[in-house]
Amino acid sequence: MLGKIMLLVLRIWYTSLNPVWSSQVANTVILTIGFIAAVEQIHSGGDKRKQETNKTGKVIRETASHPHWFLSGIAFGSLMFLTLWIFGEVSLISRWAVSGHPHTGPDPNPYGGTVLFGLAQGLMLSFWSWSSIISFALFLIGLASSAGLLYLHTWSAAVAGNILGVFTMCVWPQLAGRFVSCPHPGKAMSTAMFAYVLELFFCVWCTAYKFVPGGVYIRESSHLLLGFIMLCIGIEFLTGPKKDLSSVFEVKSNQKTFFKRSKNYIKLLLWLLVGVGLLGLGLRYKTYQKKLGQGVPKRDFSAMIWPFRFGYDNEGWSNLEGSANLLNQTGADFITIIESDASKPFIGNHDPTMWLGERLGFYTDFGPSTRDHTWGIMALSRYPIVKSTHHLLPSPEGEIAPAISLTVNFTGKLVDFVVAHFGNEEEDLDRKLQAIAVSNLLKTSSKQVVFLGYITSAPGSRDYTELIKNGNVQDIDSTDRDRWCSYIMYRGVIRLGYARISHAGLSDSEVQMAKFRIPDHVDSYVDNDRIVTDPSQVPEDVHFNPRFGSYKDGHNYVLIHHFHMSTPKYFKRTK
User: Fold this and answer.
1) Beta partners for 304?
2) Going by fewer Cβ within 10 Å, which terminus of the chain is more open, N or C?
3) How far is it, in rounded angstroms, from Cα 384 to Cα 362?
């Protein structure tokens, strides 16, 4: 488990990313080391097996005191998955508990440090010997904390998650010791891996239920998964033999002095690792706070939307660095990113929202929590987010559609934003209900609002019309008929420009962005109504970044980020 703590500390210093899988070079090195270690274990295990054949009688006599391989395998596989699912990275607890501004709950930095501390404290407790009563009370506390993580909110949920972390780590040595002492190690290991993989698939089914067979029966059923895991762990923990660590790992009497001394070194190394992790969080937090609030007072602002696909490029590699470079080059002041929740074990268990926020120096809103079973939607803002509300749009047939309504303070001028990710094209009822829900959000927003959405409908369609008419907003460019998913709409601000930028293999979807001006008098202003494509006809401060080239008709198929689809366009007032 020191290796687990070390990995968490490394991920703190790598801002949530797993350094082992973050690049092809690291991936190759670790796989090579793993292969060499496996070969060495296979060869070194041969002598041990020869020795064991001379102890058959002794093994038979002791079998009765060993745990049953099936129960032990199920429990150990469940414990492995629980540790990965919820404690694979110190930011995950915060993302299970997150809510809207200003009462978001604990931010992953610096409060991820409490998760690291709780896990270390759980390991310290594992050195103790417990009676049956204490073990049962400990299990009840773990069970209650798992329910609290699922059903409580913000700080209460985070506290419950930390308590669950203490419970998880304090049972690790006991369950691991029983697991390795099973009389049938092959059967035990096969059972453990089967349980682990089955629970991982169940976790996928809970969110991706629309795309998998039988998904309709287990949609949004994380409570069943967590309940099953806790039950398996609890049965093995409570029914197995009560031993101290030296007995669990079969330490011989002449080695107990060495084992006791080793425990002190282990504890020292554990807290040294925790200290390194907390130092990393502290340095990151200090740097991030210095970056925040650097936006200059302005009347003009830019907003963009990008389907992110969890930060993986079209080659399948995590490419947050490339994403950050692209976002920085656009100069956008407000960004919404679709499909952003990578806080799931089958996506990477990392936090792109936190990573991008710290790298760019932006305020962040994670969107609906990980436990809400959406694919995620985040908001990044150069200016402070005054308030926000997370929404789960009506989704009776398809996957849960997330949305956020926010208010951003552009140095004294408040502008509302509504960002949303609609369901799939095939779910007609879902899209209809979602369009009605979002149009109501737009209708009840302030006089100045910008909508950035992924609505899987064509311009002029039923859902598009619902947003325009009942939401009382305008399309940034109603002449652009070659759109399908991403849309930008607005009310109460003056449009200045509109651009579409090719993805260049960084995702499978383009970037769309728009520039607006906040009028001095919202009740008496005139919007720009004329489209121009020659940037020399508008002031230079309105121009999009020339790094993306110039006006281009049609798709850009070259693997560089470039304006395309008859953009950029600028807007002027007819004289």
Assistant:
1) 335, 513
2) C
3) 9
Separation between Cα atoms, residue 559 and residue 550, nearest integer Å? 16
Q: Which of 548, 562, 487, 98 has its CA nearest to residue 307?
A: 487
The verdict on pTM exceeding 0.90 is yes
Return the closest-CA partner of residue 450 out of 430, 475, 433: 475
Contact 277, 116 (CB under 8 A): yes
Length of the chain counted residue by residue:
575
What pLDDT score was predicted for residue 58?
47
In the DSSP assignment, the letter for residue 505 is: T
Contact between 419 and 450 under an 8 Å Cβ cutoff? The reply is no
Number of Cβ within 10 Å of residue 281's Cβ equals 20
Residue 204, token pair as written in the block:
């996928």
The Cα–Cα gap between 506 and 309 comes to 9
What does the alpha-carbon distance between residue 310 and residue 316 come to, in Å, rounded to a whole number? 10
Query: Strand order in 413-421's β-sheet?
Result: 385-393, 401-410, 413-421, 449-454, 486-491, 474-475
DSSP state at residue 4: H
Helices 154-180 and 69-87 cross at an angle (nearest 10°) of: 150
Assess contact for 196 and 77: CB atoms under 8 A.
Answer: yes
Torsion-angle region of residue 16: left (phi > 0), alpha (psi -120 to 50) or beta?
A: left
**pLDDT of 61 strictly over 50:** no
Backbone phi, then psi, for 91, in 5-degree steps? -85, -10
Lowest mean pLDDT among 145-149, 294-298, 390-394: 294-298
Distance CA 106, CA 88 (A): 18
Q: Tell me which H or E stretch contains 389.
A: strand 385-393
pLDDT at 298: 84
pLDDT tens sequence across 338-394: 999 999 999 999 999 999 999 999 999 999 999 999 999 999 999 999 999 999 999
pLDDT of residue 60: 41
CA distance 501 to 205: 34
Pairing of strands 300-307, 334-338: parallel
Residues paired with residue 500 on neighbouring β-strands, in sequence order: 512
* Percent composition of the chain: helix, strand, coil (DSSP 3-state, to 5): 50, 15, 35
Q: How many CA atoms lie within 13 A of 253 on its CB side?
A: 0
Q: Would you state the pLDDT for residue 432?
A: 97
C-alpha to C-alpha distance for 118 and 95, rounded to whole angstroms? 17
Residues whose CB is less than 8 angstroms from the CB of residue 491 and which lie 6 or more positions away in sequence, other chains included: 442, 445, 447, 448, 449, 472, 473, 474
Element (H, E) at 116: helix 108-125
CA–CA separation, 510 vs 483, rounded Å? 11
Per DSSP, the three-state class of 57 is helix
pLDDT of res. 126: 87
List of residues 6+ apart from 466 with CB closer than 8 A: 432, 435, 436, 439
Cα atoms found within 13 Å of the Cα of residue 218, Cβ hemisphere only? 19
The phi and psi torsions of 531 (rounded to 5 degrees) equal -95, 135
- Read off φ and ψ for residue 509, nearest 5 degrees: -135, 150
Q: Which two tokens stand for residue 475?
A: 């399309």
Are 559 and 504 in contact by the 8 Å Cβ rule? The answer is: yes
